[in-house]
Design a protein that fits this description.
The protein is mainly α. The protein is 58% helix and 0% strand. 29% of the residues are buried.
């Protein structure tokens, strides 16, 4: 994959989901390989991607950005900071980019599906139809 921006777009939702799930202790929790077996698929992939990112030359910057996002997961500016750190790390290290592409491909998430966080329903697969009926929000 030659386009670093495209790879960042594929990696960011998974790393963000891990940050949101684990909060400010995200870096410590992704370093614990034993809990991968029980992690939900999206968070588990985010953990593996982030674990590899934390072995890059920009580990400190990526770790700081993901920790801050874990502390304030709804802050759009922090998501942009994390995206910028990912882009810098990937632009600096082609092997890192290749490793992340491989992790995405092994998981089946390498561009085949788009993961959007913040919704109330989830659908994964090809040619599926999903209808979600939620009660109206209470004021």
């Amino acid at each position: 994959m030659d386009d670093v921006g495209q790879l960042v777009g594929q990696v960011l939702p998974f790393v963000t989901r891990a940050a949101v799930e684990y909060g400010s202790s995200v870096v410590r929790k992704v370093s614990d390989e034993a809990s991968d077996a029980t992690a939900e698929a999206t968070v588990g992939l985010g953990r593996r991607l982030l674990r590899r990112l934390l072995r890059s030359r920009r580990a400190d910057q990526v770790g700081q950005a993901v920790t801050e996002l874990g502390e304030r997961p709804t802050d759009a500016a922090l998501q942009e900071v994390l995206a910028a750190q990912l882009k810098a790390a990937l632009a600096q290290d082609r092997q890192l980019a290749a490793d992340l592409v491989q992790l995405l491909a092994q998981s089946g998430a390498g561009g085949r599906f788009t993961v959007v966080t913040g919704g109330q329903g989830v659908q994964v697969g090809d040619h599926n139809t999903q209808t979600n009926l939620f009660p109206p929000s209470q004021p």
